[in-house]
């Protein structure tokens, strides 16, 4: 038995190595051709698509073998890689084309493009982005278990439990939102409720159970409509991602067929829609409902010049992270030395509850300080332009900081997912519901101060839910699995 386990581990390690060695080729090639920044940019940009293919579609991909790829797409290697790396690496094409004088891939500048200092900086940022993509995947793959260890199981019917959990988490989430000392726990609980409602709806559709469809679909639709009142694009996109990924294993062709037109519509109309709501409801001019109606009317009127202008600005400066990245690369280390461990220190201090430290700094203020210093935002403006993990990695220690921070990001993310599946009986409840709801901030990432806080209190929330379910005998321990796992580790 021990020999068999050693042989299996050896085969798994060889499979890992094949994947991990080749995903760094795009970064190496982009370094080799960096003398031409345009070529270097496109090598790095296309390199992310190579990493997507190599880790998700190739024959040597390294994923868990307990489920087919289609049925585990909400694990980090798929969902978080696509969203995190997609935003970090792929959306930069719009900013770069704008830099070269294009708008919607049509040449608008009459002057021929000439390589300048800005071109070299953009290419450098793209090279670090593809390095970060490879580091993220490395961290995830090193923590992937081809046969995940599951020590607990749900002691109830999953559909019934999801309805119960949906109501329970929503009730406690609303309650927590009204108590300042535990306010931060409300987001994870409400996210669990939203994910449960979507999951119940999908399972109702698949099983053709009308009651589940009405309950889950009604709650999810209510939440989706509520998200259209906020003025935030991200809340709308998240809801669409959740329902799409849940439906994909059962309706692959339909979802893939609708994917491209849906993405196009969202990117085309959503910026204008959100801007109208913000401009009219945030300043008290109109109610959120009235602003939403006004936004719908504007889109129906199809004011193409206004929509095009708003949308292109969104694609080049808001959707893409590279604009901010280039400003920090210009600023550091030329005008200011690297931050070192300063950001990490503040991130750890930010975890301390204000009830225990009344004079604790305001996390938003501290995290925005480096944004102001780099000239990314003006101090008198009300904009919140917080950095992303790849930027914080760079300002901390250059490209080495990028690699280490994003590697740890992927490593910790997959480790938490493994723990959630272990505690909650596997992929469906552990990964889909608990992990992706409570740790939803890991999809896109945030600055280090908020990110570490989200992870720490999310982990506490996960264990609090587990403790309640364990004490109520809703989740029970699989002693046989536990003994097997213990014996295999000896």
UniProtKB/TrEMBL annotation:
Keywords: Membrane, Transmembrane, Transmembrane helix. It comes from the Bacteria. Signal peptide: none annotated. The chain crosses the membrane at residues 41-57, 77-97, 128-144, 156-176, 182-202, 211-229, 235-251, 258-277, 393-412, 424-444, 450-469. The keyword Transmembrane helix applies. NCBIfam families: XrtY_assoc_Wzy. This is Oligosaccharide repeat unit polymerase. It comes from Pedobacter polaris.
């Amino acid at each position: 038995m021990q020999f068999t386990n050693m042989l299996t581990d050896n085969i798994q390690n060889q499979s890992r190595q094949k994947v991990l060695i080749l995903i760094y080729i795009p970064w190496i090639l982009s370094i080799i051709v960096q003398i031409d920044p345009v070529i270097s940019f496109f090598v790095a940009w296309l390199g992310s698509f190579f990493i997507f293919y190599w880790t998700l579609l190739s024959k040597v991909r390294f994923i868990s073998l307990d489920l087919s790829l289609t049925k585990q797409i909400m694990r980090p290697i798929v969902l978080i890689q696509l969203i995190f790396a997609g935003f970090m690496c792929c959306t930069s094409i719009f900013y770069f084309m704008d830099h070269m004088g294009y708008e919607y891939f049509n040449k608008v500048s009459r002057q021929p493009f000439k390589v300048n200092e800005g071109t070299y900086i953009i290419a450098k940022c793209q090279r670090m982005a593809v390095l970060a993509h490879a580091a993220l995947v490395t961290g995830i793959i090193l923590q992937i278990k081809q046969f995940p260890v599951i020590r607990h199981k749900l002691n109830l019917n999953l559909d019934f439990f999801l309805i119960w959990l949906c109501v329970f988490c929503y009730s406690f989430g609303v309650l927590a939102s009204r108590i300042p000392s535990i306010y931060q726990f409300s987001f994870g609980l409400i996210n669990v409720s939203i994910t449960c409602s979507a999951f119940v709806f999908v399972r109702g559709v698949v099983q053709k159970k009308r009651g589940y469809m009405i309950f889950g679909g009604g709650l999810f639709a209510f939440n989706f409509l509520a998200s259209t009142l906020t003025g935030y694009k991200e809340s709308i996109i998240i809801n669409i991602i959740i329902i799409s990924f849940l439906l994909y294993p059962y309706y692959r062709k339909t979802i893939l067929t609708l994917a491209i037109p849906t993405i196009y519509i969202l990117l085309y109309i959503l910026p204008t829609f959100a801007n109208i709501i913000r401009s009219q409801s945030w300043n008290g001019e109109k109610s959120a409902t009235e602003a939403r109606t006004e936004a719908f009317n504007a889109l129906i009127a199809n004011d193409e010049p206004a929509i095009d202008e708003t949308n292109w600005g969104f694609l080049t400066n808001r959707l893409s992270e590279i604009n901010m990245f280039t400003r920090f690369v210009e600023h550091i280390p030329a005008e200011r030395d690297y931050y070192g461990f300063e950001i990490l220190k503040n991130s750890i201090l930010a975890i301390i509850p204000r009830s225990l430290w009344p004079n604790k700094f305001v996390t938003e203020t501290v995290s925005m300080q480096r944004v102001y210093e780099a000239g990314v935002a003006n101090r008198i403006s009300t904009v919140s332009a917080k950095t992303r993990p790849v930027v914080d990695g760079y300002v901390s220690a250059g490209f080495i900081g990028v690699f280490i921070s994003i590697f740890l990001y992927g490593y910790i993310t997959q480790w938490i997912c493994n723990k959630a599946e272990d505690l909650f009986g596997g992929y469906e409840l552990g990964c889909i519901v608990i992990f992706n709801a409570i740790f939803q901030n890991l999809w896109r990432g945030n600055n280090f101060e908020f990110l570490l806080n989200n992870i720490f209190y999310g982990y506490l929330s996960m264990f609090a839910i587990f403790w309640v379910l364990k004490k109520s005998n809703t989740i029970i321990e699989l002693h046989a699995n536990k003994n097997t796992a213990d014996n295999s580790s000896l």
